[in-house]
Design brief:
alpha+beta; transmembrane; about 525 residues; 4-stranded antiparallel β-sheet; cell membrane; transmembrane helix
């Protein structure tokens, strides 16, 4: 929650900074008089503090999860992580903006403010997932939003009087049109990289937030179109109502930015089916489909009730647009838009239908054949441990000697059947390069989850040093469990109704039961892949 609020405040502050610097660079004849010096300075000062929030989180993870000292963690983040580098550079830019004395070269301040937006984009999800392409797409998206909304917010809340000069509408309408075009284009590009399975993502909180964000964008576009029409008029009437509509649009934009901030604490679902192994379906989706989906899929289908709801909602939205453009009655427009968006959302949910589970009915004669279905032919798999539990087989194996994977399969009379994406993966640095690499996954749904309990805890890993370890004892909050070491790996699966504390030390035991060493583990993984 803290990081969500910090990200939202960061978006708001950068919007004010961009909007204020652009307006200061514009001739006074082409803009209203602004009294936003204080909010500008406050936004400038707060920006590095907000960028420091993810820095603190990464430092904490390195210190508590990987055993680095605080000084080592800080140095590592500042010099090797994009969040640390972005924070350090932001301090330098903020210092220049605060001490800037030459007001005649306002566009140079705009460039520096745009660089601040670039630093925020540098440490984004898109940049971490898609590299430079993701960074460029996210930067264009982010910059377009701050330009459009920043100017709007500063004018609506910090202009001296209600009268907005006509020349302002001329250039701002064009700027807003270009910004919206850039937002839509870059948004589609980012979705392809971050959420390739858009409809499937509605099963998860991230997808629900993304859908709500997109729906709220519709009334935002309506108000933007209203202001574009005003910009085409020779004379602006009802200036008080116009400024009021500016405020409504800016508030709506900040609500959308709040949703964007909330999305930063959710893992983008690149593969929804795989994510559902450890995450539950969002409660809102469960209202419409129940618990019918575990590792299945959803699709959109025709529904008469949903179609009628969608049609009525669209008509109500058009009525709100008519009230905004012709009557210029803001409150009727807002009420119509709110009801219409709620109706469109519920119609989309009613369009959703549960598809068939992705179950592979093929019977594979050998274990290796079944496992290889997840990988290319050139991939080298080495099975290190097998556990038979009733009619299932738990397998731990390495992938090209780097990743360590635990997978569940079904044992049948003539061979093995695969469960859909029933894999938990320890990736990152090669397991062969570390003396010990152990992780625990806290599973609440999917193929690793025991439906008779709320939680299933899966702990597995590789121990190369010390050499005399023959078994391990995992100390969860709810009890201790012993697992045998085989080919330097072990696996322990435990289910319970209790949410155990993240701390769960692991004792390395010799043949006689003597504790050789204790592996401190202070975190549990919530996804299906970890470093």
């Amino acid at each position: 929650m803290i990081e969500s609020i910090a990200n939202w405040l960061l978006y708001v502050c950068l919007s004010f900074v961009i909007g204020y610097t652009i307006l200061q660079a514009i001739s006074q004849k082409r803009r209203p008089e602004i009294m936003g010096d204080k909010i500008y300075l406050i936004s400038i000062f707060i920006t590095p503090l907000l960028l420091a929030v993810p820095v603190g989180r990464v430092v904490w993870v390195l210190s508590n999860q990987f055993g680095l000292s605080w000084i080592e963690s800080i140095q590592t983040v500042l010099f090797e992580y994009s969040v640390g580098q972005a924070w350090f550079l932001s301090i330098m830019i903020v210092f220049v903006l605060i001490t800037w004395k030459n007001k005649k070269n306002g566009w140079q301040q705009v460039i520096l403010a745009a660089l601040l937006v670039g630093l925020a984009s540098w440490s984004s999800h898109a940049a971490s997932i898609a590299g430079w392409g993701g960074f460029v797409g996210n930067y264009i998206h982010y910059l377009a939003v701050t330009v459009w909304i920043g100017i709007l917010a500063v004018v609506s809340w910090f202009s001296v009087d209600d009268k907005i000069p006509s020349p302002f509408f001329k250039w701002y309408s064009l700027t807003a049109a270009f910004s919206v075009s850039a937002i839509i284009l870059s948004g589609f590009l980012l979705m392809g990289a971050i959420v390739p399975e858009y409809v499937q993502s509605w099963l998860l909180t991230y997808g629900q937030l993304l859908l709500i964000k997109h729906l709220l964008f519709l009334p935002l576009l309506a108000f933007g179109f209203h202001h574009l029409v005003l910009g085409m008029k020779a004379e602006i009437t009802k200036t008080g109502l116009t400024k009021q509509s500016f405020k409504i649009e800016s508030v709506l934009a900040f609500v959308i930015l709040l949703i964007s901030g909330m999305m930063t604490e959710q893992t983008p679902p690149h593969e929804v089916v795989r994510t559902l192994q450890t995450e539950s379906i969002t409660p809102m989706m469960q209202l419409f489909i129940g618990d019918a989906v575990q590792i299945g899929v959803i699709h959109l289908t025709v529904s008469s009730i949903a179609l009628i709801t969608l049609l009525l909602s669209c008509l109500l939205f058009l009525y709100g647009l008519y009230q905004l453009l012709k009557k210029q009655t803001n409150y009727r427009s807002v009420i119509s838009f709110v009801i219409a968006i709620i109706g469109i959302y519920f119609s989309f949910m009613m369009f959703v239908e549960v598809g068939d589970n992705q179950v592979d009915e093929t019977v594979y004669q050998t274990l290796e054949q079944a496992l290889m279905q997840n990988y290319e032919e050139s991939t080298e798999l080495v099975v290190l441990k097998e556990m038979e539990v009733e009619n299932e087989r738990y397998v731990v194996y390495t992938v090209n000697g780097d990743d360590l994977v635990a997978e569940r399969l079904i044992k049948v009379e003539d061979g093995y059947q695969r469960l859909p994406v029933a894999m938990l993966t320890i990736g990152g640095t090669s397991v062969r390069e570390e003396e010990q690499k152990i992780r625990t996954f806290r599973v609440q749904s999917g193929n690793w989850h025991d439906d008779d309990f709320v939680y299933t805890y899966v702990t597995f890993g590789m121990i190369q040093e010390p050499e005399d370890v023959v078994r391990v004892q995992v100390h969860y909050e709810g009890g201790s469990y012993i697992a045998q070491l085989e080919n330097e790996v072990f696996l322990n699966v435990t289910s319970t109704n209790d949410a155990w504390d993240d701390q769960h030390p692991i004792d390395f035991l010799a043949e006689d039961g003597t504790v050789i060493e204790t592996y401190a583990r202070n975190v549990m993984e919530e996804g299906v892949y970890c470093h």
